């Protein structure tokens, strides 16, 4: 267990992102090695060269959560810090709860890729990206979730980001990305006030797509895809056709957290 809070801005270990580009696989060039840290067991300072200025004067008003889908945080960090990979994230959190700051929050990291949320199409310019070291199949470690909680609290305090604008990669890139996946416990973070969670009530399935759009799911209008992406986040173990529970949950979210309200300052 981690006894102290992770120190943001110092180093630690990490995990990986993989998606500024549309390709899923990023391979390291032969002979690529980290410079400092890790190789000898001591994480050293890490910086990713993969960033640029936020476009059009955008400031961070969203957070996008990812998992690395790699075997280790170490491997993920290598990719995130490799200029040839052209991917990065602001933070990487390893399974032990170590937080590695790779790109300054003020700058545009390359983690989101194609997709949109509400009116935002350049998600990288509007967001802070956090990669969780996870292979895509394993549960998230408690220490890692504790570190994420602290990190999100800090980001919210620094940028005044609303909880409904803390989303998963799958939310903004339906059909292309599935992280952070069904094992990520959104409800836990909702209890902390860091993300939103719907109240359960029966709803009208005929309004499902409209309410999905109103909440922020503007990247697709395909009915099957909308249901998949909704359940991935809010009903990860539900099956079968769209029902009144799905419809009621998104109706509640659309009513309380309409994305267009926030798009004005996005
Ligand atoms: Zn991702």
Radius of gyration: 18 Å
Q: What do the pLDDT scores average to?
A: 84
Strand order, biggest sheet? Answer: 4-3-6-2-7
The top-level CATH class of the largest domain is Alpha Beta
* Secondary-structure class: alpha/beta
Bound molecules: zinc ion
CATH architecture classification of the largest domain: 3-Layer(aba) Sandwich
Q: What low-confidence regions span 5 or more consecutive residues with pLDDT below 50? A: 1-44
- The CATH homologous superfamily of the largest domain corresponds to Peptidoglycan recognition protein-like
Q: Do you know the CATH topology of the largest domain?
A: Lysozyme-like
How many strand segments?
7
What helical percentage do the residues reach? 25-40%
Apparent shape: globular
Major beta sheet summary: 5 strands, mixed
Termini, distance in Å? 38 Å
> What is the strand content?
5-15%
Number of domains: 2
Summarize the helix and strand pattern as letters: EEHEEEHEHEHHHHHH
How many DSSP H or I helices?
A: 9
């Amino acid at each position: 267990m981690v006894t102290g809070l992770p120190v943001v801005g110092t180093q630690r270990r990490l995990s990986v992102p993989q998606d500024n580009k549309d390709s899923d696989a990023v391979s390291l060039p032969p002979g690529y090695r980290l410079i400092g840290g890790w190789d000898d067991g001591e994480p050293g300072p890490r910086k990713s060269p993969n960033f640029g200025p936020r476009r059009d004067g955008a400031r961070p008003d969203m957070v996008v959560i990812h998992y690395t889908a790699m075997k280790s945080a170490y491997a993920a960090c290598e990719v995130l810090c490799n200029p040839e990979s052209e991917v990065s994230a602001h933070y990487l959190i390893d399974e032990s709860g170590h937080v590695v700051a790779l790109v300054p929050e003020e700058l545009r990291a390359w983690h989101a890729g194609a997709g949109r949320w509400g009116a935002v199409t350049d998600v990288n310019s509007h967001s802070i990206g956090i990669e969780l070291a996870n292979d895509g199949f394993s549960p998230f470690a408690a220490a890692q979730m504790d570190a994420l909680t602290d990190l999100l609290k800090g980001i919210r305090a620094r940028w005044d980001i609303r909880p409904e604008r803390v989303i998963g990669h799958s939310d903004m890139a339906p059909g292309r990305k599935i992280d952070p996946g069904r094992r990520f416990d959104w409800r836990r973070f909702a209890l902390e006030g860091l993300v939103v969670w719907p109240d359960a009530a029966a709803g009208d399935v005929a309004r499902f797509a409209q309410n999905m759009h109103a909440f922020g799911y503007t990247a697709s209008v395909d009915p099957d895809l909308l249901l998949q992406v909704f359940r991935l986040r809010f009903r990860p173990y539900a099956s079968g056709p769209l029902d009144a529970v799905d419809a009621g949950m998104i109706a509640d979210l659309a009513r309380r957290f309409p994305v267009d309200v926030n798009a004005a300052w996005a």
